[in-house]
Amino acid sequence: MAEPVEPQARHYTDVEFGLWPNIHVANQKVVERKIKDTPPRLPTVFQSYDPPLYLVTFNTLVRRPLLACEAVHAAFREYAERGFSFHIATGRYVLMPDHVHVFVRIGRDMTLPRWESGLKQRIGKALTKLG
Asked: What is the mean pLDDT of the chain?
């Protein structure tokens, strides 16, 4: 009978979090953040776009299922449509009850944290109106 193998400790660099693979160690993809305090970018294939394309994911506080309603969807779409005037293109998205996935391309006159903060504020206002 074979000896049980002790699992190795996993590091955040062992898993792709929307980051680009830039190092290969023993047939294993390892990824890292290039610049401290910046959001991760999609793999290199998407970096040929200018401005870059981001995959943004965020969730509700303690993952409460608040987002599965028409008011939140309408607020999200309104925010995305208004983004065109600020050189922001919102791509495919998924609104789940407790989290959001969205592709977004942001122009040079806007930052990703500022865009994401505005989206969260807009969704928060829609939820406040619901009570």
From this structure: 75
